[in-house]
Each structure stands twice: as C-alpha cells, then as structure tokens.
Amino acid sequence: QVQLVESGGGLVQAGGSLRLSCAASGRTSSIYRVGWFRQAPGKERESVAAINWSGINSYYADSVKGRFTISRVSDKNAVNLEMNSLKPDDTAVYFCAAAGAKRGYDDWGQGTQVTVSA
C-alpha cells in the first residue's frame, strides 16, 4: 500500500503558475509510475500527466502539453507538477495516483483544489 498526499493547490489568475507536489509513503518500492489526474464538477476524471518512478519518461495530455511539467524529486519520495500559463479550463481538483508494474492506479491521494480565475 502506498499513501499519497497532494499539496500546492490554490487560487491563481489566468496566465499564472502553480506547483503541485505529491508526497508518497508506505511501500514506495512498489511504485512503477505516478500520474496526475484532475476532475471538475460534473465532468469525468481525466489524466493530466504521468512519470516513471525513475524520473525518466513522461506523458502529458494534449491539453496541458507545453504548459505543465511533471518531475520526480530525486532526494524525496515525491513527484511535482509545475503548471504554467494556467487557464480557467484548468480549474479542477487535482489528484495524484501510484501504479505498480503489475497493477493499475490503485493508490490515490485526497486531492488538492486548483482554481484559475479569468
């Protein structure tokens, strides 16, 4: 079991930046990849970005490509999501999740609210 805690959400104006952090604990040796997801009220949860636990190889949704950067913090059991050029459409609750090599995203954080005002 992996425990995940997100932090860094808040209110920002369009064009601004936020950095989210996902801190992992527990059986971190079982983690193969960490993903960031978001969900706005009344909408389906969508994948935003993902990165291998090694910090090498990453994925971005087309909607955030070129604006968001996912990274593994080398000296910590954590993954960051740096969000730049934020848009009102980025407003959502952001979750991080961990997946093992033989399993899907079974461990999820509690989420952190990101609100982008026009």
Structure characterization notes:
It contains no helices and eleven strands. It is mainly beta and 118 residues long. The strands form two sheets. Strands 2, 4, 5, 6, 9, 10 and 11 form a seven-stranded mixed sheet that branches.
Structural class: mainly beta
Give the % helix. Answer: under 10%
Major sheet attributes:
7 strands, mixed
Q: Which percent band covers the strand fraction? A: over 45%
What's the layout of helices and strands?
Layout (H helix, E strand, L loop, with lengths): L1 E6 L2 E4 L4 E9 L6 E7 L6 E7 L5 E3 L7 E6 L4 E6 L8 E8 L5 E4 L3 E6 L1
Parallel strand pairs: 2-11
Antiparallel strand pairs: 1-3, 3-8, 4-5, 4-9, 5-6, 7-8, 9-10, 9-11
Core attributes:
118 residues; mainly beta; 7-stranded mixed beta sheet; 4-stranded antiparallel beta sheet
State the gist of this model.
The chain has 118 residues and is mainly β.
